[in-house]
Design goal:
Cellulase_Ig-like, carbohydrate metabolism, globular, eight-stranded mixed sheet, 35% helix, 14% strand, Immunoglobulin-like, alpha+beta, Glycosyltransferase, 16 helices, 619 residues, disordered N terminus, six-stranded mixed sheet, signal, Ig-like_fold, cellulase activity
Length: 619
């Protein structure tokens, strides 16, 4: 994905009884290794794996609690593979025998000498419910408009001129990366109130597609377990999404702001200026000035008035509203009916023949989505559930429509796992629940949906088997954190649908990877664990001294070849923390304000983490 930017193997362990000491032979000529653990911790009944990186050779490990009592010992088995020229071996340490709540650390002796950070064993609710609240706090920090929450970052109202946003024709893009503007922007003369919403990532552009994706995941969590703070944030997001849909003209607006500027046409885009968002409101500019579109941000529509809407957008926006309707059905029936009507209207306008290039962002190269049957399945499924909740007679019709799109998705070639570009796992899980009760005329069966969930998880298991850290994602491409959380969530959804715990350990390992059980020993959630990103590629966090972008999820490790010697953004504060010694030849993690490739947070990363943590906390 292109992101917005500026130019158990062989382990022998034994549980000690009564705190008896175990003699461990001192290591001879020990080499400094590193122990990587899930820095948040492990559920009492979960599989528990840590990783030792170091030199090849035999080592022993001991687990001690926070009182210094030894509770578990073992020996490293065979290496899972080499990581780098410095760390030629990776060993998996099985800590699953730990079932007593408490705080622990791993101490290794022998060929590799190392000590892990402290980690917890506790109920999953105690461990991961607080992380859901942390992720929600990131969404609060991303608020735009007049109703910001000051929070830890001291946020101030921003982009108030969005309340009178000028609508522009779709820009023409080209060039080698697909983001070069080929002609001047053309105003249509229309105006639209698009104030509010969330900034997408480390900058201030707002996208309907990404916001709807996040709202669908947050709405799913809220429907399952109501929380007032999360409910307030979902309502905030839906209020903005409502502004992006003009029911009267049947127009869906897709984007506020333009990331790409143009030297040729004399204007700057959002990504060309490093500043606090409220600085844009203070600009004194007129048409033709370089920063005109920084203050007066262009609004772009996804469709002409009354025309059909790109189906990826129609499906996920409908899903977001329909989930809002489900949440509000027993709390505010009038609001629920409004959300349901909007969801139905948008869904009915989806363009499902001669689709062409999907609308995601302008330029499309920023978020080059190809999959849409999954979004339509998700939209129809949530409309069916909302209709049933509200007593609408079309519930079964929507459910049958959902099965048609599920069939198309399963038969198609655009397949991934749960992330910004693929919502099928979320759709399958709810649609399978509908089919349990029986549905005449269904185009797929519950068994079909389960098989596709299994297909997604099996694809991850196959990749993980070749990874020394048992991660299912390719850490040489974008979205390592997001896709890891997608696998973790999908494993939980699969168990919820089937009762089968086959993928439990796999799902836990994917979460572990994002919370410190990786080569770099860094949690990819800001403020969570013992070591987290200190220098996120995020303008507000960079410019407000000593403030924490709490709960934000960054991209994570990426391919070495994707980095270049980019200059420090003008106006930013230099910030870099060293991790180079843990890089491999193929993969790198860089904790630096310039490293958008690894260190830029985003709302879709964070909402998928929020979903995964919420599902983990219910076990």
């Amino acid at each position: 994905m292109l992101r917005t930017r500026f130019r158990s193997i062989g382990v022998i362990s034994s549980l000690l009884v009564g705190g008896l000491a175990v003699a461990v032979a001192p290591a001879a000529a020990a080499t400094a290794g590193e122990v990587r653990v899930d820095q948040v911790g492990y559920g009492i009944t979960e599989a528990k794996y840590a990783y030792l990186i170091g030199a090849s050779g035999s080592s022993s490990f001991t687990v001690v609690n926070d009182k210094g009592v030894k509770v578990l010992t073992g020996k490293t088995g065979s290496s899972l593979g080499s990581w780098s020229t410095k760390y030629k071996a990776v060993y998996q340490l099985d800590l699953s025998a730990l079932k007593t709540p408490g705080k622990y650390k791993v101490e290794v002796t022998g060929t590799n000498k190392a000590t892990s950070p402290l980690f917890r064993v506790d109920t999953t609710g105690n461990l991961f419910d607080p992380l859901v609240r942390a992720n929600n706090e990131f969404f609060q920090s991303q608020r735009d408009g007049k109703n910001v929450i000051p929070g830890r970052l001291g946020r101030k109202p921003s982009h108030l001129d969005d309340a009178n946003g000028a609508v522009y024709a779709e820009p023409k893009f080209g060039g080698a990366e697909g983001d070069e503007i080929l002609e001047p922007l053309k105003a249509t003369g229309a105006k639209r109130d698009v104030e509010g919403g969330w900034a997408d990532a480390g900058d201030y552009v707002k996208f309907t597609s990404n916001s709807a994706y996040s709202l669908a995941e947050m709405g799913f969590v809220l429907r399952e377990k109501y929380d007032p703070a999360l409910a307030e944030e979902v309502c905030f997001g839906l209020k903005w999404l409502d502004k992006m849909w003009d029911e009267q003209s049947k127009t869906l607006y897709a984007q506020v702001g333009i990331g790409t500027g143009s030297e040729k046409f004399g204007f700057l885009g959002d990504h060309d200026v490093w500043r606090l968002p409220e600085a844009d409101d203070a600009l004194n500019v007129k048409p033709g000035d370089a920063k005109y579109y920084v203050k007066y941000r262009p609004v772009f529509a996804a469709n002409a008035a009354g025309a059909q809407i790109s189906p990826n957008l129609a499906g996920r926006v409908a899903a977001a509203f329909a989930l809002g309707a489900q949440v509000q059905a027993d709390r505010d029936p009038a609001k629920a009916k409004k959300y349901f009507a909007e969801a139905a209207s948008i869904f009915a306008q989806a363009k499902t023949t001669n689709v062409g290039e999907l609308v995601s962002a302008f330029p499309h190269a920023y978020y080059p989505e190809d999959s849409w049957h999954d979004d339509m399945e998700l939209g129809a499924t949530q409309l069916a559930l909302a209709a049933k909740k509200l007593g609408d007679s079309k519930a079964d019709d929507y459910a049958r429509t959902a099965t048609q799109w599920a069939k198309e998705y399963i038969a198609g070639g655009d397949k991934s796992t749960l992330n910004l570009y693929d919502t099928s796992a979320l759709a399958h899980a709810d649609l399978a629940g509908i089919l349990k009760g029986g549905l005449s005329g269904a185009k797929v069966t519950e068994k079909d949906l389960v098989a596709d969930l299994r297909r997604q998880l099996d694809s991850g298991v196959a990749v993980a088997a070749k990874s020394p850290f048992r991660t299912a994602v390719e850490i040489t491409t974008f979205d390592a954190a997001s896709k890891s959380y997608g696998f973790a969530a999908t494993a939980r959804l699969y168990k919820r649908v089937t009762g089968d715990s086959k993928y439990d350990a796999f799902g836990v390992q994917q979460r572990n990877f994002t919370l410190g059980a990786n080569a770099w020993g860094v949690s990819l959630v800001v403020g969570i664990g013992t070591t987290w990103p200190q220098c996120p590629h995020h303008q507000i966090a960079n410019l407000i001294p000593d403030k924490l972008l709490y709960g934000a999820v960054v991209n994570g490790p990426n391919g070495t070849e994707l980095f270049s010697n980019e200059p420090l953004p003008e106006g930013s504060k230099a910030c870099t923390k060293p991790y180079e010694k843990f890089d491999s030849k193929a993969s790198r993690y860089m904790d630096s304000v310039i490293a958008w490739q690894t260190n830029e947070p985003a709302i879709d990363f964070t909402s998928t983490a929020l979903l995964a943590f919420s599902l983990a906390g219910r076990n």
